[in-house]
């Protein structure tokens, strides 16, 4: 099995610092509590003038059992009754948002995340879809992108049939690892047959795209054990794979304190897992979209990247560009017009705001001109793996190389190390530079401390 490019482990280790994942710029760490409900309402109203399609994210925070690796905003409970008042409050949030939104705009994208959205009963899923349709008008368009995250332990073939009837056409299955020893160490025992049964049924039902989530760097993993997981996953033939680098930050995420740090693989072993992942998936015909995403060449993500329309949002890479994102639920983040707005991250505060007939806006930010220039540069670099300075100059009416002198100065060392090359006005990440694309993006970040701390995960 040949490597798809020359591997330099020493160089990767040298650049393996802490840094943002850039699902937004500015990142959530720059959001401020001085951003209030009226600011969000004003942004919603402004966005109507452009008439962009809508993307709606719904956060379902509940799961029956907490996985030890998890860093999400979640509520672990076995009582499904807690979902009823939550759905009612989601509807209340929609009611408060609706007067500020032109609902003739198409809802081109819908994503349910969590937690575990399949924590909901089938009737509760139907209820929530009905409420979303009543408030915003959901789309029947063939090219809509309606996705839901699924825990294979919480779903069966009847769940998939129901989701298809509700209008979902894309599924994301959490797998993480197929090794039983690793599963026990992360408190997520999930027999392979559960995943295989759902994949087979999704294929039979004709779901347009299916994604599997894996994580490397988990306790008790080795390069050989992870290669065995990859071999089994490749045989399942999903259209997309998200293969995340586990970030062990027990000081931030209480669930991770159950993980024995001594069981975590050494940095060299993690690098070996990354190398094996890229080699095996490339050989199997997958395109490395960037960072932790892989897709078949025929998948909409790979097509969007080839056409230059790929974008990045809080769910990762997305093929639906130019949507305004409305986030519903506890901790959800919206990206509307030129603002980011985040809801309260605790269930109690979220409920209290809605019960008082207020949107649950906790913090956010309105972007300056400089923020918008740098956001565009970071997003295009992370999506296209290159940045066209002529296009950037034309888009914003600036001399981009002069305007971004600070960023270009910070890229001099990566250029000498062979992570980027110039082709006329285009700055292009090399194959090795693609693995360090977060580090390259950091050069354009005017808000990042020059020595990012452990608030961020490691890059590799």
Automatic annotation (TrEMBL):
UniProt GO molecular function: coproporphyrinogen dehydrogenase activity
Origin: domain of life: Bacteria
Keyword Iron-sulfur on entry: yes
Family: Belongs to the anaerobic coproporphyrinogen-III oxidase family.
The EC number(s) this enzyme carries: 1.3.98.3
Pathway assignment: Porphyrin-containing compound metabolism; protoporphyrin-IX biosynthesis; protoporphyrinogen-IX from coproporphyrinogen-III (AdoMet route): step 1/1
Cellular localisation: Cytoplasm
UniProt protein name: Coproporphyrinogen-III oxidase
Reaction it catalyzes: coproporphyrinogen III + 2 S-adenosyl-L-methionine = protoporphyrinogen IX + 2 5'-deoxyadenosine + 2 L-methionine + 2 CO2
Cofactor: how and how many bound: Binds 1 [4Fe-4S] cluster. The cluster is coordinated with 3 cysteines and an exchangeable S-adenosyl-L-methionine.
Species, as recorded: Billgrantia aerodenitrificans
Role played: Involved in the heme biosynthesis. Catalyzes the anaerobic oxidative decarboxylation of propionate groups of rings A and B of coproporphyrinogen III to yield the vinyl groups in protoporphyrinogen IX.
